[in-house]
Amino acid sequence: MLMKIAVVGVGAIGGIYGGLLANVGHDVHFLLHSDFDHVQRNGLRIDSVLGDFQLPQVNAYQSAADMPQCDVVIVALKTTANMQLAPILDVLLKPETTLLLLQNGLGAEEFLAQHYPNNSLLSGLCFICCSKIGPGHILHLDQGAIRLGEYNPQQEAGITPKMRDIAELFANTGISIHFTPNLLQARWEKLVWNIPFNGLSVVLQQSTQGLLTDRHCRDLLVELMEEVIAAANHCGFTIQPSYAQVLLHATDKMADYQPSMLLDYQNKRPLELESIYWEPIRTAAERGFDMAKTRVIAQQLAFLDQKNSP
Amino acid sequence: MLMKIAVVGVGAIGGIYGGLLANVGHDVHFLLHSDFDHVQRNGLRIDSVLGDFQLPQVNAYQSAADMPQCDVVIVALKTTANMQLAPILDVLLKPETTLLLLQNGLGAEEFLAQHYPNNSLLSGLCFICCSKIGPGHILHLDQGAIRLGEYNPQQEAGITPKMRDIAELFANTGISIHFTPNLLQARWEKLVWNIPFNGLSVVLQQSTQGLLTDRHCRDLLVELMEEVIAAANHCGFTIQPSYAQVLLHATDKMADYQPSMLLDYQNKRPLELESIYWEPIRTAAERGFDMAKTRVIAQQLAFLDQKNSP
């Protein structure tokens, strides 16, 4: 089955996953912003642990109005750009289109489900070390798996046919797809890493190993992870307290890594504070749980983000 | 009455107060470290809002062993150097010597009272904007008052004769001395300012106005102040919750100012984390109060201090 796929946002995430899908023969249509001219002329270049490749000619668009309607629309914008989504999706979606959201944090699904209630909405949590190092040029350093779930605000979605369709789409790309029956729980589990590591990497201007090898900073990482776990459990999810140590030791073993928020900061891009900090903080507060330490980090990041905006 | 006065540590605080005392005719003996050669040759230079002056010849010493025993010993070292105090004070103290400690934070009095139980121990909390801008060269920008109390671990010391003696010492210097009957309460009150402003100035690399004028950072300042007030009240002191807003508005009106910890950091001096952060955190924890947000800041500072040490 040749699926028509739209990739909205061609940064690191849209570039690597869209590029891999195009490389195995899918009909992929890329909606670009700043890199449009370069990619239309030169295509995409992917330097990947899965094997380097180039796509000299890709279907590149500057406006959603020029794009065909697609079977799958992959949303790979930063969450900070989500206010731009509605006019794009209004054009790209057919009633039977599946939306695949590749974003971190909380809140985006609620917005999409409200606006496009008839479309299937799936989300992939990306466990990947990659960055865009030039126009149309993606560097994929490590990992790559996607935790995939279908959004269902009422109950656990379970493993659905649409999830199997998306997994099939990624066949032969080298990307592992892991199903999660409870997407929101998986999102909170990812926040257990994102909240401490992304935030402290920006505030203290350090990559992962720099944070992990200092005694006080390591304590702080653990305390923040424990707070996120406690918040998640307070919100009705189930994350074991020992998960903090699991993530800590896994990160010890990873290559030294600059979290995506540190890269955003260094490149003077807005930080994803709303989805990774404020929405979880609000969600927990509504259940009566104060994420006090997380709020300290969020307030510091808000200050730095404000000073950093070009 | 001509008193013999020793000043141990001639940074900003020892320099300005010792200089002012010498300038009104007291017999002041300065124990110096890095600036000894310069000060022995050139004396002290004080640029002060109270009037600029020079002291071309001062009694400068490199070793306590060369100094006379004194009626008053002013300890104006950074608390990070307090481990060097015992051998110095062993030499300088007579049984009737009054110790005057000009330091921030908690913990130093306990140590001194234990080692020198027979000497009167007074502490001055300095509300002053000043810094050492060169060898033997002090710049005093604003304020200058000292809140003075006598140390008494059992009960409120009240207003004591020794406190009046010290106030008399500062007569004609231009420095206001305000008596506090409860020194430890005054120390906690000063921590309400020091903990948020010193810490965030280092973590976020900002002077006071930069911190105050950002909405998120201002919220964080207030939350930290409220936490310190809650901790103090938990430890048996009485600080009104409204004190946070009082300090905030007072700082709004002050000239833009680099807190001393930021100056220490910029000059690669060790930060006073033990007295300003860890000792208060421990003291509150012993009473069952977790200074959670303060600990986040302390852990970040410990990380930065470690990376900053030369």
Automatic annotation (TrEMBL), chains A, B:
Enzyme Commission number(s): 1.1.1.169
InterPro entries from the UniProt entry: 6-PGluconate_DH-like_C_sf, 6PGD_dom2, ApbA, KPA_reductase, KPR-Related, KPR_N, NAD(P)-bd_dom_sf
Catalytic class of the enzyme: oxidoreductase
Single GO term (MF): 2-dehydropantoate 2-reductase activity
GO biological process, one term: pantothenate biosynthetic process
Record's keyword terms, sorted: NADP, Oxidoreductase, Pantothenate biosynthesis
Pathway listed: Cofactor biosynthesis; (R)-pantothenate biosynthesis; (R)-pantoate from 3-methyl-2-oxobutanoate: step 2/2
Domain Ketopantoate reductase N-terminal: 5-152
Domain of life: Bacteria
Pfam families: ApbA, ApbA_C
GO cellular component, one term: cytoplasm
Reaction catalysis annotation: (R)-pantoate + NADP(+) = 2-dehydropantoate + NADPH + H(+)
Start and end residues of each Ketopantoate reductase C-terminal domain: 182-302
Keyword Mitochondrion: no
Function: Catalyzes the NADPH-dependent reduction of ketopantoate into pantoic acid.
Similarity remark: Belongs to the ketopantoate reductase family.
Protein name: 2-dehydropantoate 2-reductase
